[in-house]
Write a structure and sequence with these properties.
Elements (H helix, E strand, L loop, with lengths): L1 H12 L1 H8 L4 H21 L8 H17 L4 H4 L1 H14 L4 H6 L3
Helix pairs in contact: 1-3, 3-6, 4-6
Keywords: Membrane, Transmembrane, Transmembrane helix
Length: 108
């Protein structure tokens, strides 16, 4: 799963060249691949959740690493930083308590 995420992130970073070569017929691929790489990063974190500790220190480190990656690669850095961003989201989700009505009636 990690290799699929890295491969999709690399492919999405090369999409402008592929779109120029393939014409407008690849417009759906242009929209799909970056989002799919972020989805795969979330799936990777979810599958590794029993090995990870979602604590505040890890969230801060992940936020710093994600900001460094995004500033280093402004066009496609969010695909590579997706596991770190999603780690921060998982930390927030684990630390903020849910109200009873959401726990009972969650439709997500």
């Amino acid at each position: 799963m990690a290799f699929l995420w890295l491969g999709l992130s690399f492919l999405s970073s090369r999409l402008p060249e592929l779109i120029k070569a393939g014409g407008n017929s690849l417009i759906d691929v242009k929209l799909f691949i970056p989002l799919f790489s972020v989805f795969m990063a979330g799936s990777l974190l979810y599958s590794l959740k029993k090995y990870l500790r979602f604590n505040l220190f890890g969230g801060i480190i992940s936020l710093i690493v994600a900001s460094l990656i995004i500033t280093s690669f402004p066009n496609f850095g969010y695909q590579y930083a997706a596991p770190f961003i999603l780690f921060v989201v998982f930390v927030i989700a684990n630390k903020i308590p849910s109200p009873k009505w959401i726990k009972k009636n969650d439709l997500s």
